[in-house]
Amino acid sequence: MSTEPPAPEGQVPLAYRNEKFLNSPDARALRIISEYLEPLAHFRRERIRDTVVFFGSARIEENGPLGRYYRDARTLARIITEWSGSLQDPTRRFVVCSGGGPGIMEAANRGAKDAGGKTIGLNIGLPMEQLPNPYITPQLGFQFHYFFMRKFWFAYLAKAMVAFPGGFGTLDELLEILTLTQTQKLNKKIIIVLYGTQFWHEVINFDALLRHGTISKSDLELFQFADDPESAFRILESELTKYYLRPEAPLPEPLRVDPDIATSKVADPPQEATPPPPGRRPVSGDASEESGES
């Protein structure tokens, strides 16, 4: 931590201490990268290797009309955390992660805390309803300004996601993960569970999308349905074990080069050599060659 004294009166402050600059449009890139680097530092310190993400409505209350979904999310998060805590691994595996707010998000963090586990909250400031819930592990609670950086952290660490009934935000997150999976922009398998078969069939007419030819039949295999915590956990345990605990051809994660998301599927075109200017012969050891500059 810096111990530099404040700039004397009349002296121009250091750029990284200049709040007017840091909050200006010119410093937007710094604010964006901060929302990458700060969570990354915490995840490394807490040895978080991967997550199971819970999506769902912030408006569902434990004793409200849809309260069973709150109670089921809490139970499922507890079961997942108990199971992941029993794994013999120096890192923390399949940590329950939510959007950090109330409703289903609160239920997920609460269930993980019931089991004595760490749990992540990726909160974002909104005009209403989005205050951090009290069940998030303090070192793993984050406040985002940019939606796309929050979405990055949802996708980057996730090995599975469970979508409970929700509104626009839940639909947005679910469809984005499905799109990344469908278009093979993920270098990993994300297990997707839609919790509440009747709700999801009523809200999204998957058969109509198939009938109209806007999705393929194989796209319906990107997700599975569950209606109780035990069934959802059986899917998650089976698939996570298959793909990440006992894969047929494991690749040591420390040796991986490519990130898990946003990998281009298009090969870079071959680069043609640029001929030297007329009258100039290439010289071995040229500074441009040594530095790799073109």
Describe this structure in words.
The protein is α/β, with parallel strands linked by helices. It has a domain at 49-244: Rossmann fold (3-Layer(aba) Sandwich), CATH 3.40.50. The protein is 38% helix and 11% strand. It contains 10 helices and 7 strands. Strands 4-3-2-1-5-6-7 form a 7-stranded parallel β-sheet, with helices on both faces. The longest helix has 19 residues, at 67-85. The model is unreliable at 254-259 and 282-294 (pLDDT under 50).
Strand content: 5-15%
Strand order of the largest sheet: 4-3-2-1-5-6-7
Helix and strand string, N-terminal first?
HHEHEHEEHEHEHHEHH
pLDDT < 50 stretches: 254-259, 282-294
Helix count from the secondary structure assignment: 10
Can you tell me the CATH class of the domain at 49-244? Alpha Beta
Shape: globular
Give the arrangement of secondary structure elements.
Blueprint: H1 19-22, H2 28-45, E1 51-55, H3 67-85, E2 95-98, H4 104-114, E3 119-124, E4 141-144, H5 147-157, E5 158-163, H6 168-182, E6 191-195, H7 197-203, H8 206-211, E7 224-226, H9 229-245, H10 287-291
Parallel strand pairs: 1-2, 1-5, 2-3, 3-4, 5-6, 6-7
Helix pairs in contact: 3-4, 3-9
Short account of what is shown:
With 294 residues, this protein is an alpha/beta fold. It has a domain at 49-244: Rossmann fold (3-Layer(aba) Sandwich), CATH 3.40.50.450. The protein is built from ten helices and seven strands.
Defining key terms:
single chain, 294 residues, alpha/beta, Rossmann fold, 7-stranded parallel β-sheet, 11% strand, globular
